[in-house]
Amino acid sequence: MSTTEPATDNRTVAFVAGATGYVGQQVVRQLVAAGIRTIAHIRPDSNRLSEWWTRFTELGAEPDATPWTLPAMATTLKGLHPRVVFCLLGTTRSRMQSLARAGKDPAAASYESIDYGLTALLVEAAVHAGNAPRFVYLSSLGAGPNPKGAYMRWRTRAEHVVLGSGLPYIVIRPAMITGPDREEERRSERIANALVDGALSLGKALGIEGPWRRYRSIDAAGLAAAMIRLAMDPGAANHTIEREELVAEAPEKPIR
């Protein structure tokens, strides 16, 4: 199932890969609220495909379940000619462990296959779209020179693909992304985030603001708003934005 019909009302078109994720849902919601034609991609093998299809339709977005193959994704993006492609893809260690417990190959949900592999595929498909859409990639603080661990190494490789694509790009590197509205239970993660934020706030109160600006958590709504402002700002192309720059680099302005 795919959405390939070109816009007929001259609205900006945004394609959101990873639309069902925590940040992706907020990006879709805010794009629709801004009057932007929003294509919300759902994994075609998702066991919640029908549920997500209904939810996005009711929200005012256009659900899409294009298969994760280069020919299929390239065809979809070529038909849509999006102005912006949001790449909000990622897997988790718990997902890999769940596959292993179910007797399935955890490599299917590895950082290499999802965080890097699907990002690279989407980049190539966006190039094939032919209209050079701005590619907004949600990475992570810690990617870049001297990445630590497999997660950061594959995120760094994905960034290299984005930067080398020739597409106008925005790479976002937030620190912790948290909030009470997550559908999945992440109790330990929320506790850790609260402890870190508390320590950073104490440091700020003592006059040590650098770590607070760089490492404090951000919720999905605030992150989505900053990402959309950057995506629609003509002067913001070809930048890598880290936590302390998200607000400064994305001043409040109407989204067109």
Keywords for this entry:
256 residues, alpha/beta, Rossmann fold, two-stranded parallel sheet, 9 helices, disordered C terminus
What does this structure look like?
This protein has 256 residues and is an alpha/beta fold. It has helices at 22-33, 49-59, 70-80, 93-101, 111-128, 149-163, 187-205, 210-215, 220-232, and strands at 13-17, 37-41, 62-64, 84-87, 134-138, 169-173, 177-178, 218-219, 239-242. The protein has nine helices and nine strands. The strands form two sheets. It has a seven-stranded parallel beta sheet, sandwiched between helices. A two-stranded parallel ribbon has the order 7-8. It is globular, with a radius of gyration of 18 Å. The model is unreliable at 185-215 and 247-256 (pLDDT under 50).
Strand content: 5-15%
Radius of gyration: 18 Å
Note the run of SSEs as H and E.
EHEHEHEHHEHEEHHEHE
Structural class, please? alpha/beta
CATH fold-level name: Rossmann fold
The neighbouring-strand order within the major sheet is 3-2-1-4-5-6-9
CATH class label: Alpha Beta
Could you report the average pLDDT, rounded to the nearest whole number?
79
Tally of discrete structural domains: 1
CATH superfamily: NAD(P)-binding Rossmann-like Domain
Q: Using DSSP, what is the number of strands?
A: 9
CATH architectural grouping: 3-Layer(aba) Sandwich
Low-confidence stretches: 185-215, 247-256
Summarize the structure.
45% of the residues lie in helices and 14% in strands.
List the helices and strands and how they pair.
Blueprint: E1 13-17, H1 22-33, E2 37-41, H2 49-59, E3 62-64, H3 70-80, E4 84-87, H4 93-101, H5 111-128, E5 134-138, H6 149-163, E6 169-173, E7 177-178, H7 187-205, H8 210-215, E8 218-219, H9 220-232, E9 239-242
Parallel strand pairs: 1-2, 1-4, 2-3, 4-5, 5-6, 6-9, 7-8
Helix pairs in contact: 1-9, 3-5, 5-6
